[in-house]
Amino acid sequence: MPAARACQGLNPASSVHRIQQAIERFLDASERPVLCEPGEEALAIGSDNFVLEQRNGCLSLQAWDDRRNLVRRVTGIDSEGRGRLDLRIERFGKRAGTLALADLGRPRNQGLQLTSARQGFRDVFRRFLRRQFPTYKIAELSTEANLEESLSPVYPRALLREGSSAWAGMAAPPDGGQADGVLSFALIWLDYLRRREPNLAVRGLILYLPEEMAKTTCLRLRHLNTGKARFSAFLYTEDAQEYAADLRDYGNLDTRLDLHRSGLPSPVDDTVARLSEIPGVESIERNDGERSLRVRGLEFARAAGGRLLAGIETKREIAASNVKEVEAMARELARLRAPDNRDRWNPIYLRNRELWLESQVRAELNEIDATLMPAPVYGQVPAFAATERGVIDLLSVDTNGRLAVIELKAAEDIHLPLQALDYWMRVQWHAERGEFSSHGYFPGIELRREPPRILMVSPSLQVHPTNERLLRYFSPSIDVEHIGVGIEWQKKLKVMFRSRRTCP
Questions:
Q1: pLDDT tens, residue by residue, 391-403
Q2: Edge-to-edge order in the sheet of strand 58-64
Q3: How far, in whole angstroms, is CA 213 from its chain's centroid?
Q4: Alpha-carbon torsion angle 169, 174, 179, 181, nearest 10
């Protein structure tokens, strides 16, 4: 084939040489060069995995890593700027395209690799859908953020359509830090499509989950309303092979219920009693028998094993001769965390707002629900194997012996309903087996084994607008009440609204 026809997009050899010089100049000036092709992950390049070669009047580019080998013909330069070089390319079959060289060492390009990875996973998701649903048309596939509908760019979403029948689809990326959040956004997507497409029968939701991080989502799916929507899950492996998940296999929970230990008489009991008399100080018995001393939720001291430990960040043992120092600390904390303190920007006032809300709920439980017994109320039981959950859990009981899960959040949280469901599942698990009574909780109270209630408590102006939409998809066997308290909840707990779902 004549050289002139081998690479028609290029001018004579001088143009090929000029393009090659531009690429080499860019690479020499770059700290962390990467090659970015739409729909693919960014590929880090260097002298050991990148080659430019002129052949038959064409400029060929080759780059590779342990998973990919990319070969493209470069036909021109679209734009050249600081930290970025946009190229016109030709793929096999003479299909035109674009490709970018970028320097991740420049701040403006920091998000480029993340965007490229998301686009690459979007195309993996497309392949999943085509293999499993060959008769359906992928009418929509996106990773664009939709702030109005609270749709995240982290999770690619799809609309599958066959005639007037459709499915909503969403995938969790292989990054394990994102897997547990997918169901909140997927239910929002499903609900949005049903409102947006009134002429389509959007039957339900299809989820794709990384195999090693699917358990939380699959457990949650078991407790959604199958009369309102159908739910299917597919798991995918590290080599991008997918298979259908059987939700019946997800019946066992990673949960434990420690024995409740009541505190024994201690040499520091008198000191604890003296500190508890300071206005603003509360004394809370922990599930392990230790006693926590707090100022509006912020712990400053703890009685453990006959010793008094004090401090905010770290605690040290306090001798009897130094108790006045702890008293002074408590009074200063009570001043800084006073509800009427005008300095509301001081870090002590702002600290641990969820724990402050917990303190208010414990003190005014009858305002939240008049049927709940004021005591005992337990915190963070059963325990989670995971780390910080970002919410506070309380467990109470009503006058009829029915358990109530109280989930507290002082700030807007899109995931609050499903986090409440996580805790509810664990409480139900232990309640069905009669383990709360046998482990020393709620002594003298005959507990019923029916599913517990969920009470979600948050400031009324700090409720995420999607929370109510998510609750619509909960199983009708779950009794949920969302309670919004007034903006001045730190002064006085006052219920501003109640939104309740009950069993039919």
A1: 778 999 999 999 9
A2: 43-44, 33-36, 96-103, 84-90, 69-81, 58-64, 50-55
A3: 13
A4: -60
Closest CA to 373 of 400, 397, 394: 397
CB of 274 closer than 8 Å to CB of 281: no
> Which candidate, 314, 306, 310, 307, places its Cα nearest to that of 330?
310
176 vs 151, higher pLDDT: 151
As to burial, measured by CB atoms within 10 angstroms (0-12 exposed, 13-18 middle, 19+ buried), residue 244 is exposed
- Tell me the per-residue pLDDT of 34-51, one tens digit each, with 9 for 90 and over: 898 765 677 889 989 999
Give the pLDDT of residue 6: 46
Please tell me the distance from the alpha carbon of residue 373 to that of residue 116, in angstroms, as a whole number: 54
CA distance 421 to 416: 9
The percent of residues above 90 in pLDDT, for the chain, comes to 71
β-bridge mates for residue 378, sequence order: 395
Reported as a pLDDT band with limits 50, 70 and 90, residue 390 is low
Give one DSSP letter per residue of 241-298, joined into a string. Answer: -EEE--GGG-----EE-PPP-PPPP-TTHHHHHHHHTSTTEEEEE-TTS-EEEEETTE
* 434, 382 contact by CB (below 8 A): no
Q: How far, in Å, CA of 457 to CA of 26, rounded?
A: 56
Q: What is the pTM of this model?
A: 0.79
Phi, psi of 14 (to 5 degrees): -60, -35
Rounded CA gap, 217 and 419, in Å?
11
DSSP 10: S
